[in-house]
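#random but structural
TW: two for the price of one
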Amino acid sequence: MSLLEEYRRKLVSPDEAVKVIKSGDWIDYGSFCGQVRALDKALAKRKDELRDVKIWSCVNPYPTEVNAVDPTGESFVWHSWHFSGGDRKIAKAGKPVYYSSIKYSELPRYVRERIEPLDVAMLQVCPMDKHGYFNFGPQCTHTKAVTERAKIVIVEVNEKMPRCLGGYEEGIHISEVDYIVEGENPPLAQIPAPPLTEVDQKVAQYIVEEIPDGACIQLGIGGMPNAVGMMIADSDLKDLGCHTEMLVDAYVYMHRAGKMTGAKKGIDPYKMVYTFALGTNILYEFIDENPKCAIYPVNYTNKPSIAAMNDNLITINNAVEIDLFGQVCSESSGTRHISGTGGQLDFVLAGWESRGGKSFVCMPSANVRDGKVVSRIVPTLKPGGIVTDPRSVADYIVTEYGKYAMKGMSVWQRAEGLINIAHPDVRDDLVKAAQSMGIWRRSNKLT
């Protein structure tokens, strides 16, 4: 049987494909821009027929019909490996969104060995190539593990999906696919970086001055890491490399500016290595069939011992709040879940392990609400706040008031260093709190 004959034999409508899903099934919806669209609409039509269909997702970028038609979660139970804005909207509307805590580099193993067996995997893919492969597009992550674990695999073809070269585990052969759906070819999610603020630019300046020529750059999500990337593009730095979990628009600008040669990388020299991409068409057009880029599963990109094979690895990530003991919370505000652990812990570890490497966790020193300064450097984390980076792991903390390296410092030194980069309006209160907790010395002087 030829590849085209096999394709035609497996080609079905979305409504036909989702008939394989039964009440009680565990299914995977795809990740990032690979989350299904036409199949989502088709499954939503079956709400009254189904109960307790448990769905896995990772960074849901689209409005989902199954959640719109089932606001209480009786038919479709939504699970997330990492919250997105879409997930937060679902939760805010009153539907449970069940998060699973991960160390992102370990996720493929969780899927292969720990989670309940998947009855059905559904994901958006590129059109089949002449060899019979469907490329996963810009979301290698744990996708191959999902298709291996699933009893039934359904692919939804999107002609707008960029074809992302590996690496490895970047696609699936038609022989491993049970059903093919030709989707509506919707555009990929457009997720531009937020506008740069003065605070972002100040934080970026503190970090960029720590970056040497030949460094390898990892950027997390958000305005501050993006500000670093844009500042690098305008800098005199040269021969930088890319080894990251998430590829964003800023990397395109760094590449166009001639900064990102990859010539000094310890592994994958000259390649921009990533496991997923989220941004705008500027990014998606750049990665499409681009041999400069190499997409890998997340147990390669995020494994600290692998990432750290690149000397001078500079990792830059965000935080929600940090306490005076040096504990970093980057995923919740108290018990209100915001995002997830993702790969931050992986890259904080990798930055330290890399020869000459540094890891930076950055945030504004405070939020201003109704004219009141609310510090994000706090005596202790809010009750229920999640420790993303333990105090023994986190190193450089950066705000618009400076940076402080915590590794090897005593509790009073950490308190002093963190208070020095807190908002000036709250420093006296933080000193009093440190005194009450026994982590302040009378000889301390604030700069």
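TW: number two ↓
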Amino acid sequence: MHELSFLYFGDIVGRPGRTFLTKYLPKLQSQYHPTFIFANGENAAGGFGLTYSIAEELKRSGIHGISMGNHIWDQKGFWNEIDRMDYLCRPANLPEACPGKTYIVVENQSVKVALFGLLGRSFMNIPLNCPFKTAEKILKEIKARGIHNIIVDVHAETTSEKYALGWFLNKHAVTSVLGTHTHVQTADAHLMHQNTAFITDLGMCGVARGILGFRIEPVIEKLMCGKPTRFEVATGPSMLNGVWVKFNAAHGQATHIEPISIIET
């Protein structure tokens, strides 16, 4: 089978991130000709969480699948909306009582790709199941369906936990392990054992001249004084970060990973 590819974009932060990604996506499609397009949408609604209407907006822009993170329930009502979206997966290692799909399967050109996300436990102050054991369970379900093209979004704070999950998932022959959450694209995109595309963090889609997509002043006030502040999405020129991954769909092995970073001028 011929080589296929996908684009995956880092955390979308608020309206500026959505607007710039939607504006630039046709150019990237023309340049890379991806079979699939994915993004992490956990900051897409005002910087915190997601809504059904915004998820639908992202889908209409051409995104085939959306992963989430620790802000998944920040928007009121999303708990009751998430089951309406068959193109979105919640972090798989949240408690079993949570609604939403633990993984999704997207099909294009008669090829199926599975996507699921994991939350790291280091410095995450929320109840979580073991990401390693959860991954084993999910992978067993996916592979039982005959699907071997598998992408995992590891939404975590620490580099060490992302690498540990990366090598663990590499042994389970996943196509790609992509880190999210810290909003700064890392310089370590590579192929683990020449078959799993990995990067510690994809970066973000949002305002470039802010702090992780948010206004600078409130963040500094909180860090300096401990002052209760409301973080607001920044304004100004935006950026988008992500990767382009090529893979052999016959056996699910990645063959190339290329970081993408574009700053609005």
